[in-house]
Amino acid sequence: MLRWAPGLAVALGVLACKFPELPPIDESDARDATGDDGGVDAGPCPGELFGYAISNISACDLPSPGGDLDLSLVTSIDTFAGTMTSQGGSVAALPGSRLVPQPSGPMLRVVSVAALGLPQNVTIPILGEYPISFIVWGDATVAGTLSLTGIAATTGLPAGRRSECGTGSGTAGTGGGGGGGGALGGDGGSGGVTNNDVSTRGQAGTPLAAPARSPLYGGCAGSPGSTGALPGSGGGALQISVSGTLTVTGAVTAGGGGGSAGGAGGGSGGMILLEAGNRITVPGSLTANGGGGGGGGGDGSPGAGQGGCTSCSNPAIGGAGGGGGSGGSGGAASIPATSGGNSLQYGGGGGGGGVGVIWLRAPGLDLTGTLSPLPRTSSL
Hints:
This protein has 1 helix and 21 strands. With 380 residues, the protein is mostly beta strands. The strands form 3 sheets. It has an 8-stranded mixed sheet with strand order 4-3-2-8-11-14-17-20, with no helix packed on it. Strands 5-6-9-12-15-18-21 form a 7-stranded mixed sheet, with no helix packed on it.
């Protein structure tokens, strides 16, 4: 049964919701009856020995564990190169690492290890093209911070964010209007208008499909303001699958980036998928909040929107308008993203980014910390 700390708003919100249950993913072994070498039976695939069917990875694609992964001295992880950079600048390959295909999704960087440790006060940004999945053959504790939060930039973006979103990013503002906010688990906010002309407003991003745990894929960027200001990128995508108990006393975050000043839309939160053969315990925080929209600008100095909060369920604040419309706030918890502010003379603000997705799978859940948005759950 779930155990909740009394008095916490997030706990009360979770108790009030009925989490959706999805049918299990088909993780069938694709080998023929004689084994994957076409002759003598090669024995079970690594994934068949894990204890349950891991999401998004077929049994025969899972690498055998590559030893322990101690992240205490790591400063960043690159999912494209499959490397980690440590203090002092040395670069090493991630242990037990392999790129594997996902059905109907991007390639997935899999890191299969015997143990995973991230100590307190260590923050690791995870960058690169591919979403990442840590597979731990035992227990795991995350006491520090794993960060896949977006920013307003074209480089250095979080791992697994969507590069092409279409309607998930909304549309750009025109003629002084603000851009729409991105979407994943919830809608983005629309851009603000200028001179009472609704045609200048960028349209809000809408989720591309009903949120699911497969494929593992991050959030959508917002859209530019009419001046071309850069929107916030979507949050990234991360999966942690452990055979035993997973404990998060620190933070796992995939917030959307804030939109740039000039009416750019905020990015949506990304995706966090946690699963465990025994129990998931979270006295820390899991967040995939949307980013705030950028201020529209005018005769003052507009401001950029905030990125999605790492360890809270408060909406990210949109940028100040500087004479134009202020940016909309990002989505958080059960609070939807808001639209950018309007301006009679100057630019409209960018819309806030919508929330991402948090998905949990385990026989037991102890969730006493901060979870924003509210998690979805399904059985192993």
